[in-house]
Write a structure and sequence with these properties.
Helices cover about 75% and strands about 0% of the residues. The longest helix has 30 residues. The protein has seven helices and no strands. It is mainly α. It has one domain.
Length: about 180
C-alpha cells in the first residue's frame, strides 16, 4: 500500500511542474467554470419549481409539505440569513401568483437545458482530461447526457428525501422552520 504514495524517483518539484502543465493543457479551470456555470444556471429554477410543486401538493402533514419544509430548512442552514429570508419571501410571492402552466413549463425547459449542458460539459471535460476523442454519433452522446442528467436529478430528489427521513422528519411532522 505504501508504494501508492511513493513518487518512484520523481522529485516534488517535477511533480508540481507536471501537474501544472497538464492542468493547463487540459484546461481544468475553464472546464470547471463551464460545469459550475451550467449547473448553477439550472439549479435555481429547479429549486423554485420544486418548492412551488411541493406547496401545491402540500396538505397538512403530507410528505410534500415535509419535503418543502426540509428544503427550506436546508436553505436556512446553508445560506446567509438575508439570502434565506429573500428566498422565503420570493417563494411566498411566487406561490401567491403561481399558476402551474406555461411559465412553469418554460422554467422547466430552461432548467433542463442548463442541466443538460452541465452534463455535456462534464463529459467533454473528462474526455479532454483522459485524452479521449469523441467518436460516437451526436444522438448517442445526447442520449447519454440526457440519461446522466435524469439520473443526477433523481439522485438529488433521493438526497432530499434522505434529508427528510434521516432527520426523523417523517415521525415528527418534518423539520421545524426557524423564523
Amino acid at each position: 500500500m505504501a508504494y501508492l504514495w511513493s513518487l518512484r524517483g520523481l522529485s516534488w518539484r517535477e511533480l508540481a511542474k507536471r501537474t501544472c502543465r497538464r492542468s493547463w493543457e487540459d484546461e481544468v479551470f475553464g472546464q470547471a467554470a463551464r460545469l459550475a456555470f451550467y449547473y448553477l444556471l439550472s439549479m435555481f429554477p429547479v429549486l423554485l419549481l420544486l418548492l412551488i410543486l411541493f406547496d401545491k401538493l402540500a396538505g397538512p402533514g403530507s410528505t410534500a409539505s415535509n419535503l418543502r419544509n426540509t428544503l427550506l430548512a436546508a436553505f436556512q442552514q446553508i445560506l446567509p440569513r438575508d439570502a434565506s429570508v429573500l428566498i422565503s419571501k420570493t417563494l411566498g410571492e411566487l406561490n401567491a401568483g403561481a399558476v402551474v402552466g406555461a411559465g412553469a413549463v418554460y422554467a422547466g425547459l430552461g432548467s433542463a437545458w442548463g442541466a443538460l449542458n452541465g452534463t455535456w460539459a462534464m463529459m467533454a471535460g473528462l474526455n479532454k482530461a483522459y485524452e479521449v476523442k469523441e467518436d460516437r454519433p451526436w444522438w448517442k452522446v445526447l442520449s447519454i447526457a440526457f440519461g446522466l442528467t435524469i439520473s443526477l436529478g433523481i439522485m438529488g430528489l433521493v438526497a432530499l428525501w434522505a434529508m427528510l427521513y434521516g432527520s426523523g422528519g417523517l415521525e415528527n411532522g418534518g423539520p421545524k422552520l426557524q423564523h
